[in-house]
Amino acid sequence: MKIGIIGTGNIGGTLIQKLSAVGHEVIAANSRGPETVPEHLLKHGVQAGTPEEAFAGAQVVILSIPMSAVPQYRVLAQGMEEDATLIDTSNYYPGRDGADFLEEGTVESDWIQGQLGRPIVKAFNTIGPVSLAGDGSPDWVDGVIALPVSGDRPADVERARRLIKDMGFESHYAGPIAESWRQQPGNPAYGTDLNLTELSTALDRADRERAPRLRDLFVAAVTERMSGDTRSNPPARWGVQLSRLLYMD
Q: Tell me, which fold does domain 2-177 have in CATH?
């Protein structure tokens, strides 16, 4: 497939590498210009381009950008082919994005869909870059990781699920965009690297009121770990272990 990826950070950059490695035609873009796309991403035929070039003729566009940057892509999103798929990977963190950026209780991807004015899919938001970068069909202790996919159009959902399968992961339909809060930070499906059976149960156990408090506890724990004279980078799966401790009963 022809795929445009906007955002070359941890998740966007990993998606660029993984999807191009399995044969997809990828154009990588960010808000700073093609010359700033990291050179190590320009393998397997990846081309650096502008956001306009990434959107042009793409069958799939993946937005892996801060939520505050989403509205600026409305015109490009509305210029996509009707049957093209737009995927949102974002998550809202008040300390990073602004405490007043989203009204409490807002479904993040529902807000993004409204800002862009076209249907979207929420995917790739529950997995960290270390886990996402794992080789295809990795030998995870608890089985192959499964990713939730939310969306309103069946064709979009199936296309996103195909990409997930191409990268060696399982997927699970998590419902329409209005229900995508079940895969937001603080819920059992978020950041916990679950297999398919576990993920289905985790989505059912999502708690809309409790999740923001648990999300903020996670941030506080990470901040404490990274502060002071003894700060150090945590082990690769430390965040997964912490997420399981906080978000899963």
A: Rossmann fold (3.40.50)
